[in-house]
Amino acid sequence: MNDAVLAVRGIEKRFGAVAALRGVDLELRTGGALAILGPNGAGKTTLLRIMAGLSHPTAGRIELAGQKTPRSGVGFLGHATLLYPELTARENLIFAGRLQHVAQPAQRADVLLAEEGLADVANRRAGTFSRGMSQRLSIARARVHDPNLLLLDEPYTGLDRRAADRLTHHLRRLRDAGHSLVLVTHDVRQAAELADAAVILVAGRIVYRTGDEGLRGDDLETAFSAALDSAA
User: Fold this and answer.
1) Residue 92: inside a domain
2) Which pTM was predicted?
3) CB burial class (10 A; 0-12, 13-18, 19+) of residue 9?
């Protein structure tokens, strides 16, 4: 895998007669951020769930740092926050830490709350949080076992522009600290601001990927518009 933290090799996924993914290949380098874009039904969430070990491919394999199963080295943020609204922010993280067999979950919770800028609301119930605060707490939950790879499924959903910009800044800080990110999104602007590489899925196939020159916003927007047209 060279310096790749994640490699996707020939992934296919079928649901009965429906092919959701058709021979997907990609790599993510250590410390990189990859955006996966595409129209609704393109297979983005299905691919992310397979990367997280939450779904099994019909064919192909996922490798994380040379291992065949990525589950232990991955943090996953899906559409649902997986937070318990009646528990405090700190209690949510301690509970998640115990599920992940973290050695000192209370101490780990305090570290993450500080890093996410939530230390002053650690004892507030998660159900009272704004959407942006819930996203940050959910990211902390995904990081509780200190994974080197974070998989994020539409993390900007429901956020206003200011909250989205804060999240972009926050995710960039995590990337700069050495975490690798995979971001599923339909927002080309957010992808261009955060990611350094991108692929576009249409009907389960990669129809575009950034080349050696890296991610260029104008090229990505043009390719994404063409992908939407082809899927219409």
Assistant:
1) no
2) 0.86
3) middle
Rounded-to-integer distance, Cα 34 and Cα 183, Å: 6
Q: What stretches of 146-212 adopt beta strand conformation (E)? A: 149-153, 180-184, 197-202, 205-209
- Within a domain: residue 121? no
**CA-CA distance, 166 to 150, in Å (whole number)?**
18
Measure the CA–CA gap between 38 and 44, rounded to whole angstroms.
7
Stretch 28-43: mean pLDDT: 91
Say if 107 falls within a structural domain. no
Query: Confidence band (pLDDT; 50, 70, 90) for 69?
Result: very low
Number of domains the chain is built from: 1
Q: Copy the structure tokens of residue 219.
A: 């090229």
pLDDT over 50 at 178, yes or no: yes
Angle between helices 131-142 and 161-176 (to 10 degrees): 20
21: domain CATH number is: 3.40.50.300
Beta bridge pairs of residue 201: 206
3-state secondary structure of 62: strand
- Residue-number span of the structural domain to which 15 is assigned: 1-65+148-161+182-232
Residue 156 in any domain: the answer is yes
Residue 159: both structure tokens together: 């956020």
